[in-house]
Amino acid sequence: MNRNPDIQKVFEIADDSLQGVFGYHLFVTAMQEVVDIEKIREHLPNERIPLTFSWDRFYRKQDLINAFRMPIFELYQSRISLIAMCNVFEVSLANFIRYLNQKGHRQYLNGQRLKGDPSYRKCIKWAYKQSLKCDIGDKEAIKRLPITFGIIDNARRLRNLIVHNHGLFNTFYEEDAIDSDGIKIELHPHYSQFKINPRRSTPLIVTTKYIVRFSKAHIEVLHVLHNGIQKEYFGFSKPYEYRKEQKGIEWKRVLWGNAKVQIKVPK
Question: N or C: which end of the chain has fewer CB within 10 A?
Fold first, then answer.
C-alpha cells in the first residue's frame, strides 16, 4: 500500500506553507532589529500612496516610519502571520474533506454530511475527531491533541477578531470557542481585561512568542491528521516524519515550491 498522492499533496503544500509563514516571520522581525529604519525613507513613495486605480492618498513618510517602530512592528507582523497561518490551515482541512469525499470516503460531522465549503469551525471539529483516531507517529503529539486543537481554535477566533473587529476583543470571541469532545478552551490573557469593562476598546496583543506556539500547534496537528487519514482510508501505516531524516528545511521549496521555470523578476 502507498500513501494517497492527492492527500499527501494537500499535506505537503500546507506543511511547506506553514513553515514558510513561520520562517518569514522570524526573518522580517530579525531584520527590523538590525535595519537603520531612517534609511527606509528614500525607498518609500513620495507624498502619495496609490490606493486604487483612480486615486492616491497623501501621507508623510515620517508618520509611516514612526508607526512601524518597535514594538508596533512586531505586533502588526504577528497579526499578519497569524492570519496567513490560519488561512493555510483552513484551506488544507477543506481540501482533505473534499478529496476524501471525491474518492468515495464521505465525511460527516455529528451525523451530517460535510460537502461544499464547510465553515472553518466545522472543519476544525471534524479534524479533531479524525485526529483522535490516529495511532501512528508521534505518540506525545497524539496525547496533546485536546491542547493543540484548543490553541488552533484560539488562533481561529483571534484571526476573526483581526479581520472582522479591527483586532479588538468582543464577547463573541469567548462565545464562539469550540467546547466539545474534550478540546481545551484557550483564551488570550488580555481578554480578562476586556471582561472587566467591555465598553472600553481592548486590543489583542500577539507577539512572536504566540506565533511560535501557534506554528507548533498547526504543524503538529497537520502531521497527526495526515498520518491518520492515510492509515484509515488508504491502509498506509507508516507515519510521515521528516525529523527522522535529519535534514534541514529546504527553503527554496518552502518559499517557492521548487518551481522549474525561471522567470526574470523586473527591478
Answer: C
